[in-house]
């Protein structure tokens, strides 16, 4: 769950990206910043409070081959405001806003075994047809559901897993 600050940062970046007509590029910029911040050497310096903020910002500025000017400005702002740990939430919230603007829906399907490519495509197409929106599907494998699938999109969950059916049967049998 994104914090209020992460949502504010994501909204600000999203609005800037919309003004520039460059949502996709801003998504790539945020991903590059995340990659930079994830580097163990960079992370050690950025998370060390005994290193002056100016020196930490200088580290980010010294990566012009990795970050363009706009990315560097955002990275320095996150360092300056002490929000580097919120970057994953900012990125996630930005993606949600970009998907909403493009009329896309993110969905997660959980299965007991890895879905074949054709099955994944079929689930994605059927859900797209039902929702009348482009669906971006993420597949999660969880053997605890035994069989069937669990589908989550937006605030809706469709649970057609064998594990849930067995729990429901168990409750009915113990209730009588």
Attribute tags:
2 domains, Peroxidase, domain 1, alpha+beta, four-stranded mixed β-sheet, 176 residues, 8 helices
Provide an overview of this structure.
The chain is of the alpha+beta class and 176 residues long. The protein folds into two domains: 4-99, Peroxidase, domain 1; 105-175, no CATH class. Helix content is 60%, strand content 16%. It is built from eight helices and four strands. The protein has helices at 4-20, 23-38, 40-46, 53-61, 69-80, 87-102, 117-131, 162-175; strands spanning 104-111, 134-141, 148-153, 156-161. It has a four-stranded mixed beta sheet with strand order 2-1-3-4. Helix 7 (117-131) links the parallel strand 1 and strand 2. Helix 1 crosses helix 2 (23-38), helix 2 (23-38) crosses helix 5 (69-80) and helix 4 (53-61) packs antiparallel against helix 5. The chain is elongated and about 70 Å long. The two termini are 40 Å apart. The mean pLDDT is 89.
């Amino acid at each position: 769950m994104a914090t209020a600050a992460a949502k504010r940062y994501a909204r600000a970046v999203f609005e800037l990206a919309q003004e520039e007509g460059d949502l996709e590029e801003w998504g790539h910029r945020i991903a590059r910043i995340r990659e930079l911040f994830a580097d163990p050497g960079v992370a050690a310096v950025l998370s060390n409070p005994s290193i002056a903020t100016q020196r930490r910002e200088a580290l980010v500025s010294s990566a012009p081959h990795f970050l363009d000017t706009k990315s560097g400005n955002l990275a320095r702002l996150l360092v300056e405001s002490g929000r580097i740990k919120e970057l994953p939430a900012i990125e996630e919230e930005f993606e949600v806003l970009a998907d909403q603007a493009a009329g896309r829906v993110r969905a997660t399907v959980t299965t007991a075994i890895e879905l074949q490519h054709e099955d994944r495509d079929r689930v994605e197409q059927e859900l797209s047809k039902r929702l009348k929106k482009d669906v971006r599907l993420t597949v999660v494998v969880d053997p605890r559901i035994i069989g069937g699938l669990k589908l989550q999109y937006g605030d809706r969950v469709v649970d057609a897993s064998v594990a849930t059916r067995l729990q429901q049967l168990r409750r009915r049998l113990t209730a009588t």
